């Protein structure tokens, strides 16, 4: 490499610069090859766990719950695929994050629908529930509703919960699709506009967490054998891991003086390491979800009907 090329590469390199796929492959080092191979192994592990348990889920799960159960167990494979693609194609990170985020958003509504199916429908649960089962005093909005007392669930209760949860995929879909369009059109404009999107994204997330907390606290005591609360946490961890960890990575990159030589930029290394951590966590969550969704089984449903 001559001096002029070296100077050009130095000037081109910044902490937040992201190389293209060709530049990434061309500049790959043995260390990067090892990280990429690790990501591939973790992705294949997540797929293997799901497909090895697929027959068990189909055989054990009642048909009423089967479709939603398979979808909620399969979210970890979709998130893993998005994470692995973002390692291979660094500039696709926003698109991959959008796929993972919207998959989670879609699954939140499927989760509450599954819980209602477990209860045999809204009307059946209302008949069984305690008079103080419904409460708006749940995180993250418990302080705002401290004056409201618990009450009996009703059709309007479920309508409120469905609205709080259903707004999430709709609002997040509009916001993230428009952000992707801005990023493709002008990445500098995207960086400036993103801060204005952030309050709407956070508000929508807080509302869906509130709605999920309401329904879990309302229904979980009635069905302890179905492990509703752990199933909720297994899904919520996806949001925490895909949103909080990249933010922590950005803080670390901003405060540490990494060597920068394009295309091996700090942003590239940060992205790869964060995605490998996410892939590792998806393997763990995938194993956990397979155990959680063993109930209800066809056998337990038959025993409940007999009793």
UniProtKB/TrEMBL annotation:
It is a multi-pass membrane protein. It is found in: Membrane. Pfam families: Solute_trans_a (PF03619). InterPro entries: Ostalpha/TMEM184C. One of its GO terms (cellular component) is membrane. This is Putative organic solute transporter alpha-like protein. The chain crosses the membrane at residues 31-50, 70-93, 99-119, 159-182, 194-216, 237-256, 268-288. It comes from the Eukaryota. Keywords: Membrane, Transmembrane, Transmembrane helix. SMART domains: Solute_trans_a. PANTHER family: ORGANIC SOLUTE TRANSPORTER-RELATED.
């Amino acid at each position: 490499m001559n001096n002029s090329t070296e100077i050009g590469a130095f000037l081109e390199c910044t902490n937040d610069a992201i190389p293209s796929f060709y530049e990434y492959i061309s500049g790959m080092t043995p260390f990067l090859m090892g990280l990429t191979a690790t990501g591939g192994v973790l992705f294949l592990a997540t797929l293997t766990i799901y497909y090895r348990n697929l027959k068990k889920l189909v055989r054990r799960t009642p048909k009423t719950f089967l479709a939603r159960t398979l979808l909620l167990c399969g979210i970890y494979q979709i998130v893993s695929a998005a994470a692995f693609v973002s390692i291979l194609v660094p500039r696709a990170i926003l698109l991959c994050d959008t796929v993972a985020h919207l998959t989670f958003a879609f699954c939140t509504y499927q989760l509450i629908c599954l819980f209602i199916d477990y209860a045999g429908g809204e009307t059946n649960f209302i008949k069984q529930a305690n008079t103080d089962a419904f409460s708006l005093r749940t995180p993250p909005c418990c302080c705002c509703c401290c004056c409201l007392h618990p009450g009996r669930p009703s059709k309007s209760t479920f309508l409120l919960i469905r609205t709080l949860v259903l707004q999430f995929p709709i609002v997040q879909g509009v916001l993230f699709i428009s952000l992707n369009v801005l990023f493709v059109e002008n990445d500098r404009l995207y960086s400036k506009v993103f801060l204005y999107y952030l309050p709407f994204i956070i508000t929508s997330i807080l509302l869906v967490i509130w709605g999920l907390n309401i329904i879990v606290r309302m229904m979980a005591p009635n069905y302890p054998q179905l492990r509703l609360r752990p199933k909720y946490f297994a899904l919520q961890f996806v949001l925490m891991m895909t949103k909080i960890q990249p933010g922590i990575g950005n803080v670390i990159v901003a405060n540490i003086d990494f060597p920068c030589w394009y295309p091996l930029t700090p942003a590239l290394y940060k992205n790869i390491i964060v995605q490998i951590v996410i892939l590792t966590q998806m393997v763990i969550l995938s194993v956990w979800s397979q155990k959680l969704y063993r109930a209800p089984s066809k056998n337990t449903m038959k025993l409940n009907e007999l009793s």
